[in-house]
Design brief:
alpha+beta, elongated, 3-stranded mixed beta sheet, two-stranded antiparallel ribbon, 115 residues, 5 strands, single chain
Length: 115
C-alpha cells in the first residue's frame, strides 16, 4: 500500500495443471519456498498467499493458503487504519482513495468519519 508500504501477494494456481506431474506435492512445496523467499529480497512483502484455484477463470476463487507473513496488511487513510486481506475490496490507489473519501466527507458536510 502506498502509505504503509506493505505488500500482499496472491499467486493463483490451477492445481489440476500439475496432476500429471509425478511429484506434484514437491512442485507446490517449491512454489511456496520461492514465494516465501521473496520477502528476503523485498522486505515490504508482509503477506504471501497461494490460492488453489479449481476454476480456469482469472479469479481469486479457491482455497487460500497463507504461505508467509501476516493474514492482513494495513493502510491508513484520513487517520483510519484498514486491515486488508486477500479477499478485501479496497482501492489499491491509496492517494486516489484518500481524495475520494475527502470529497465524500465534504459533500456530507461533516468534519470527521465515525467508526
Amino acid at each position: 500500500m502506498h502509505f504503509s508500504g506493505e505488500i500482499l501477494i496472491v499467486l493463483s494456481v490451477y492445481p489440476k495443471y500439475f496432476e500429471n506431474n509425478n511429484d506434484s506435492q514437491k512442485v507446490f512445496e517449491d512454489i511456496k519456498a520461492f514465494l516465501s523467499s521473496l520477502s528476503q529480497k523485498f522486505p515490504n512483502i508482509h503477506s504471501v498467499y497461494l490460492s488453489h484455484n479449481g476454476n480456469l477463470a482469472d479469479t481469486l476463487i479457491g482455497d487460500l493458503e497463507l504461505v508467509y507473513g501476516e493474514p492482513v496488511i494495513h493502510e491508513t487513510l484520513l487517520g483510519l487504519m484498514f486491515d486488508i486481506g486477500p479477499q478485501s475490496f479496497f482501492q489499491t490507489n491509496s492517494q486516489g482513495a484518500e481524495i475520494l473519501y475527502s470529497l465524500v466527507k465534504d459533500f456530507a458536510h461533516t468534519d470527521s468519519f465515525q467508526t
